[in-house]
Amino acid sequence: LRSPSRTFHGNNRLLTFQITSHYESINQGEKEVPEYFNFASDVLDKWTQLEKVGRKPANPAFWWVNDKGEEVKWSFEEFGSLSKKTANVLSEACGLRRGDRIVAILPRVPEWWLLNVACMRAGIVLFPGTSQLTAKDILYRLQASKAKCIVTNDTLAPAVESVLSGSEFLKSKLIVGQGSRDGWLNFKELLAVASADHICIKTRSHDPMLVYFTSGTTGFPKMVLHSYSSYGIGFATTGRRWLDLTPSDVMWNTSDTGWAKSAYGSVFSPWICGACVFIHNLPQFQPEVIGQTLSKYPITTFCTAPTGFRMLVQHDMSRYRFPSLKHCVTGGEALNPEVFSQWRTQTGVDIHEGYGQTETVAICANLKGMKIKPGSLGKPVPPYDVQIVDEHGAVVPQGEEGTIAVRVKPTRPFCLFSEYLDNPEKTAATLCGDFYLTGDRGFMDKEGYIWFVGRADDVINSAGYRIGPFEVESALMEHPAVVEAAVVSSPDPVRGEVVKAFVVLAPLYESRDQKKLALELQQHVKKVTAPYKYPRKVEFVKELPKTVTGKIQRNVLRGKEWAKV
Ligand code: ATP
Ligand code: MG
To answer: Which residues have any ligand 1 atom within 6 Å of their CB?
Structure first.
């Protein structure tokens, strides 16, 4: 396959770049946030117009493949037309009105992208959920969202049916699949006969658009409400400067559709840049499939979670050739410098790490063109003014540890979430003085780079020393025996708490004498970092507890340690 970038005509550059530049200048604070904004009509339909008159590189808007060799490729015009039909299905067959809510629990199928944009067109508030949810989780989401409609597939329909008696708000159910199912409307059948005439509703920038659930790494997931402009405009700088996207590029982000990272990397950032959203409907994260896909398709930017990169470098990616790949990004969890350097050795490409939350767009990132400091979160991404603050909301001196925070006074950044739905106490608790608090600990270096220490609850306090798990884990990972590590506090009669490392070993080391190996790892950490941080306890485990997004759940390990007391 030919790389679309080679079909790009230089003289189109100015026109196509004007769309992204316009929204970037809003991110930079040079232009006002418009009173009215809708991503479907103001961004996607604009790309369709440029595409029609040949002023955009011949690059699809959406390119989907699966493990059976099936492929879907849509231009902006095709995608636009199908999303209008989908909007009509939602309004007519499902009876949804502006402001109504819909829960979508789907794997990475093309219909999920159609629903996203159809909801914008019709003013329906979308609540995506991961397809790994159980019946109990689905019930919680249906009740919490008060959704009038649910969209899911054949696999999950029985789970939805098992909780219907508790879902008093639900009026209609839409199934994405073949054949009919009692009590369900069939999406594909309705789409086939729907009209493509639809006038996108006019939405104010701050109208509610989308609600994502947080990953639930530290507790029950929170419902995070975003407006039309927050995610809709807020990813312009991310797309252009962090993900390095232009209308000639093809972006592949592996996230599940249930997490905000799919909005970051598979909807708003690529499309505000006019780039192609590439999707592989991976049933599982298999390094071979990732390697083959990056070899076969003209993917220029690749994003996966740090856990994904850890698995990929273990598999050894130097056995593949990636002809189009020029840029890699990650976020959602800390990327260990060791993984960064192995990826570069194996593929020749740097990983640009970024940091953000469901509640925000990217807060910090190692933007393109910046010197990358492996292990750092990079620098603040406009419009955010990121500072490190103490418990009173005062900015701490450079180099000192504190809470990573975003300035919200005098003006709350337009791309920060509106609120936690139905939870004013939790919303209020995120504010302190002039700042929104992320709940993460970090520090800023002399050059303005932010460094992640750990989630506030994960920081260990041993004999008066504060120790961030990430630094110790990264030190452990520099040892060839260590594939993955999680560092948590563990009770100690003398010191109160000490550092304990849970370590997953590389296969070659599994049969080694564990006592000796533990000692060796302790010596290694003392050598590569401040000795007081070394893990006084080491336990070898087969795997680490993780969220479905692949984040290490240190709170689970910590809970077990302290439960033993
Ligand atoms: P919950 O809020 O439900 O406990 P969560 O915080 O994991 O879950 P997300 O919004 O998906 O939910 O994740 C945001 C968090 O992920 C950040 O607050 C931070 O702790 C972590 N994170 C994101 N990017 C990075 C990064 N580059 N390095 C370290 N941590 C990161
Ligand atoms: Mg969180």
So the answer is: 214-219, 221-222, 260, 331-334, 353, 355-358, 377, 438-440, 452, 455, 551
